[in-house]
Design a protein that fits this description.
about 375 residues; 2 domains; 3-stranded antiparallel β-sheet; binds S-adenosylmethionine; globular; Rossmann fold; 8-stranded mixed β-sheet; single chain; alpha/beta
Length: about 375
């Protein structure tokens, strides 16, 4: 029998949850700084807000849930600005939390009010908590955000895959300066595929029936990847999202996909920051947490320094650059945009590959006179590929 959403087993703090929180928090911090500069009120919507606390198997408190973590990130940014004697990064941060399960809601309410009291900058931080379903409450929230013209970040983190109609995601993405961070639970899609009652949930999640063909033609990891790709394809085609990145999360016990974290944005800066974070969160730069394989492989190669670009094959990237840009002058920013969108490489690799090409006499740089960082390729610099 399926566990209730409030069952203690569901609130044990697993490594994949810790990594999910790391990715989210590492992103929210620069997002708040960037958006807060132009729009003084910013909104974080936690559509599946959770219980508020996580424990270990023995009941020892290990971590707080995502809404509290988001408030803590905002608080520490305000603290940092104060320490540096600079204006605050934003005037107001609101965290809107929706939680359907009454038991989880009660716990979240308690933990939120306890943890909120500990925050130093309460005047600039607030939260709204609703015991409601995401799909029912979202319309009002969308209206509020539209009215306030506030940039917003929607975290959509269900346990399964029901209660998230794609038409709602589409509506959210149509708001200006709004991003979505979505947890696509492919393990559960696979597990409950044949249940008649889930057909409607899947139709609503994908807004078409292509998932059916995938499920009848493919198995195992191929099916997971295809289900994820179909969702991403929808974000591009129907959601009109310009940039999408994803991170594969395996089970703690097995090298098997549990879910994909998927980020959709219309801004390259946000996409780049998220992709950098996802790269760094994966032990091997493969945009995934591989469960037990991570620890095993880490142990095997712990003698080497695997940080940064060292273990990524930049020879292939050099070839991509030459194939794409041979005999062309290309702006540095354009190279970043193209390579980030079409490949798995990040800035460190692109720099390394371009520098290698320069050493080999296959490229040179024309510096933008306003780019003060002498020696380092930067904004406005042009790269000529020979
Ligand atoms: C994965 S947990 C959320 C964890 C939380 N985001 C975190 O990172 O700490 C999913 C939560 O969504 C709640 N939930 C389930 N269906 C829901 C719905 N339709 N609308 C809102 N919340 C829902 C569950 O009770 C559960 O607490």
């Amino acid at each position: 029998m399926a566990l209730k959403d409030s069952s203690p087993e569901k609130w044990v703090y697993k490594e994949h949850t810790r990594i999910k929180h790391n990715i989210l928090m590492n992103y929210l911090s620069p997002w708040m700084v960037k958006l807060g500069k132009y729009y003084r009120h910013i909104i974080f919507v936690d559509g599946f807000a959770g219980r508020g606390e996580y424990f270990d198997e023995n009941g020892k408190l290990l971590a707080v849930g995502s809404p509290i973590k988001a408030l803590q990130v905002a608080n520490s940014l305000l603290e940092k600005a104060k320490e540096k004697n600079r204006p605050p990064y934003f005037d107001n941060f609101t965290c809107i939390c929706l939680e359907k399960d009454t038991d989880n809601y009660k716990n979240l309410k308690e933990v939120l009010s306890r943890e909120y009291e500990k925050l130093k900058f309460k005047n600039s931080l607030d939260y709204i908590l609703k015991n409601d379903e995401f799909a029912l409450a979202a319309e009002d929230i969308i209206r509020k955000i539209k009215y306030e013209l506030a940039p917003s970040f929607f975290f959509i983190d269900p346990f399964g895959f029901s209660g998230v109609p794609f038409k709602l995601i589409k509506e959210i993405l149509s708001l200006p300066r709004t991003e979505v961070f979505f947890n696509l639970m492919t393990r559960d899609i696979n597990r409950f595929l044949n249940l008649e009652s889930n057909r409607e949930n899947l139709r609503s999640l994908y807004s078409n029936m292509k998932w059916k063909d995938i499920c009848s033609a493919l198995y195992g990891q191929e099916r997971d990847v295809a289900l994820k790709n179909l969702f991403i394809e929808n974000l591009y085609s129907e959601g009109k999202s310009k940039y999408v990145s994803s991170f594969r999360m395996c089970m703690n016990e097995r090298y098997q996909t549990l879910y994909y974290l998927i980020h959709a944005t219309n801004h390259f800066d946000g996409f780049k920051i998220m992709k950098d974070i996802m790269f760094k969160q994966s032990s091997f730069g493969n945009y995934e947490y591989s469960g037990p394989y991570d620890a095993k492989r880490k142990g095997q190669i712990s003698l080497f320094d695997l940080s940064g670009a060292d273990y990524v094959d930049t020879n292939r990237l050099e070839k991509i650059l030459i194939d794409r840009y041979k005999n062309k002058y290309v702006k540095w920013e354009q190279i970043l945009k193209d390579i980030y969108k079409d490949t798995e490489y990040i800035e460190t690799h692109i720099r390394k590959a371009v520098n290698n090409l320069i050493k080999k006499g296959l490229a040179f740089v024309e510096k933008n006179t306003e780019n003060k960082k002498v020696g380092k390729i930067g904004p406005g610099d042009m790269v000529k590929f020979l």
